[in-house]
Amino acid sequence: MTDNVQKVTDLADKSLLIVDDDNTFRERLSRAMEKKGFLVSQAEGVKSGIASINSKNPAFAVVDLRLGDGNGLEVVKELQKINSKSKIIMLTGYGNIPTAVAAIKQGAIDYLAKPADADDIEKALLADPKTKAQPPENPMSADRVKWEHIHRVFELCNRNVSETARRLKMHRRTLQRILYKRSPK
Fold first, then answer.
1. Both 45 and 90 in a single domain?
2. Are residues 109 and 150 in the same domain?
3. Which single residue of 48, 60, 132, 176 has CA 20 to 30 Å from 109?
């Protein structure tokens, strides 16, 4: 690790709240962060996220921007109200400059595009806020990001190829070929 990143083992409070309505992603990220030494709790929406904040007061949080029952910025605002020293990372599959600015204004320390790697999230959470964050060691290739996005939309459409193709504005057969291939590196 670089000089501007702490280690989880050096921290007194290792509590981490992950708020995301994508159950598979949330579970996978939770397991990865527990292996790194964080004490993880999970929530799948704004209401359950705020309830978890009020009962556990986590030192760290990873919050998705778009949640099933509202906007993740509400969770960020509530956590900042209760614990202004908490470090919050905003995640989204719909990255744009206005939402990034809003997340930072509400108290998030970084903004990462989904699907984010657990190592990148750990680095962002543990980075010294006074220094510039390091670029990712192994960023996903553009092909991998595209593949992940297509599969996420496919899952959100209940694995319906025709509906997924319509939403992605691509031909159904092209989508079927992409879904049949293995994930790119």
1. yes
2. no
3. 48
Q: Are residues 106 and 155 in the same domain?
A: no
Q: Is the dihedral of CA 78, 123, 11, 20 positive or negative?
A: positive
Total domain count for the chain? 2
On whether the pTM is more than 0.70, the answer is: no
Helix (H) or strand (E) holding 163: helix 161-168
Together in a domain, 114 and 160: no
Assigned domain for 137 exists = no
What whole-number distance in Å separates Cα of residue 122 and Cα of residue 124? 5
**pLDDT, tens digit, 9 for 90 and up, residues 119-174:** 888 888 887 666 655 666 666 677 877 887 888 788 888 889 999 999 999 999 99
Q: Is the pLDDT of residue 51 over 70?
A: yes
